[in-house]
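thread: overnight batch results

M.L. [08:02]
morning all. the overnight job finished for the chain we discussed friday. pasting input first so we're all looking at the same thing
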Amino acid sequence: MTNTARAMTRVAGVIGLALAASLALTACSTDDAGEGPDKLTLQTSWLPSVQFSGSYIADDAGYYEDEDLDVSILPGGPDVANDAVVAAGNADIGLTNADNVARANAEGADLVIVAAGFQKQPFAILSAPDDPLNKPKDLIGKRIGVPSADTALLDTFLELNDIDKSDVTVVPVGFDVAPLVSGEVDGLVAFYTEQPTAYTAATGEKGVTMLVGDYGLDVYAQVYVVRRETLDDPDARDRITRFLKAEKKGWGDVVDDVQHAVDLTVETYAKDGGLSAEQQLAQATLQLDLLTSPDTEKHGLFWISDDGIKRNIATITALGISGADASMFDTSILESLADTK
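M.L. [08:03]
and the structure it wrote out:
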């Protein structure tokens, strides 16, 4: 799950870690002996799951090896400040959200987004099928469960859709769907690929999801982020280019065969996580909606468009994050890979 609930953890300490980057070993991306494949470290944004299955396939299928890379895939989690890990030079590339990058940069980092795994913001309002919330105005007069870290996101969503905050009752909740199942709330701020599947597992019914990105609150998610100095170094830039080429192949395989992505995740890369294959299949299937878009149909996975950059900057500014501009994005590597699958 790459959501705002993790943002404070990720951004915390960015300034200190970014300053420490100058003291970090700059050889973390190269083979110590100067022989063999180039080493590269990917910091993911959460615990192992199908959310990162494209990387698992790239590793298992030999796509990294084909690009002369030895990639270490680091798990994230509640105690991992993944933006700060990249900013400090302790990972070559990381996964996060565009708004988290803006927050980190506002705190002193200098991170650049080079690819967008999820074309849409994966936050949604989840509701029960017998009392659906299909459009923003449906929230008026309703009780909406909101994790504390997502309060600002809901406030901005309401503002963008001309809804007074006083017309919605905010109920503090965690990440469990129990408040919706029990009727304590009428809707939940949810992560599109996770809580909806948990709701179905708990009730046997398919909940109703309204993506906030469809109603003005739109930022790229699961973006690939690097330090600006990485792009300025020809050798480091070349490693990132080869890495993204392999990643595109891995995620292309996910789009083509979701079941294989689930099997590889549950049986190998997250085998100690106690994951349900059924739940992971449901999550992976929903994830396809986030991976693909008209832009990716035309240009390939991970694409970042000029219009997308403008939308992201507008949304990030609406969230109250200062300093967001086009320099947060660099599409040159994607453009060089546009003809690759």
